[in-house]
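agent> Task received from the user: take the single chain below, predict its 3D structure, and emit structure tokens. No templates, no multimer pairing.
agent> Plan: (1) validate residues, (2) run structure prediction, (3) serialize to tokens, (4) report one or two observations.
agent> Step 1 OK, no nonstandard residues flagged.
tool_call: predict_structure(input=
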Amino acid sequence: MWTTMAAIVSSLVGIVGLFASWRKSHKDELRRDDVLRWSNEAIRTLESLFLVCIHGESRLGREVSEDKMTEIMFDTAILVESGRIFFKNEIIDGHGGHKYPAYRGYRPEILDCLVIAHKISRDWIDADNDKRLRMKIVSEDCLKKFVSLAQKEVGRDRNSSIEAGVGGSGSDLEDMLRNVDQNR
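)
tool_result: status=success, residues=184
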């Protein structure tokens, strides 16, 4: 009888453990999907900022450039605030202790990239050419840093196919254009 009871209890403990493990895994996957969606939106916004910094008024025209920067200014502010849900500040030495809980401490680097992008988009219109050149460089650095941090957060450790993981050739458009078969 005790053997039967021990087997039943052991089975129940195993089932409860499996369920708890599945539930945690499912919850982690949902969070990962949410962070991935947020990251994709942030990358779209950071890339837009970088492209406006590169092409600016010379290619887009003054009105389009200014409108896009205004849109980016709003988008980055919203992305910073929504990112606070996923990435909490690090509280060191009570820094910001007088603030609301989500704002106490030091902001994570992944959010810093968006804060800097916000400031670039906010200040772009009134900046002189020298400052705009430096903003372009900083916007590129923010984009690359953000993508690297987001990849660590939600990216996979390895590709699911061998082909996707093979190193690229660093193709150049001009080389590819020269090599186009004329019979095509």
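agent> Step 4: summary for the user.
The helical segments are 2-60, 62-83, 109-123, 129-154, 162-165, 173-178.
agent> Done.
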